[in-house]
Amino acid sequence: MNRVAFVFSSAPHGSAAGREGLDALLATSALTEEIGVFFIGDGVFQLLAGQQPQVVLARDYIATFKVLPLYDIETFYVCAASLQARGLNENTPLCSRRHGGGARGTA
């Protein structure tokens, strides 16, 4: 299989896009090891630690990002400009780093 990239560009919990993207990412990881994962725009909020989706009656799929290393997805890229535009930075706690999983790059 060729290389595959997943781009998360929408905020979590407002639509099913993030959850469905994560499901597709995990399913694709069974078929190939050459997967790129990118978080741009509002997609950087997908990784934000400390979310409380139960307040808006949403499922907490964000916690699933911490298991990416179990699927051999150990590197992902977060857009530094997107972080900055949203008042975040490279030191902002992200769910995967907080739980000890995954490496982090900036794009």
From TrEMBL:
Q: What is this protein called?
A: tRNA 2-thiouridine synthesizing protein C
UniProt-listed Pfam families: DsrE
Which family would the database say this protein is a member of?
A: Belongs to the DsrF/TusC family.
**InterPro entries with a match to the protein in the record:** DsrEFH-like, Sulphur_relay_DsrE/F-like, Sulphur_relay_TusC/DsrF
Q: Which PANTHER family match?
A: PROTEIN TUSC (PTHR38780)
> Where does the source fall among the domains of life?
Bacteria
What species is given as this protein's source? Answer: Leclercia adecarboxylata
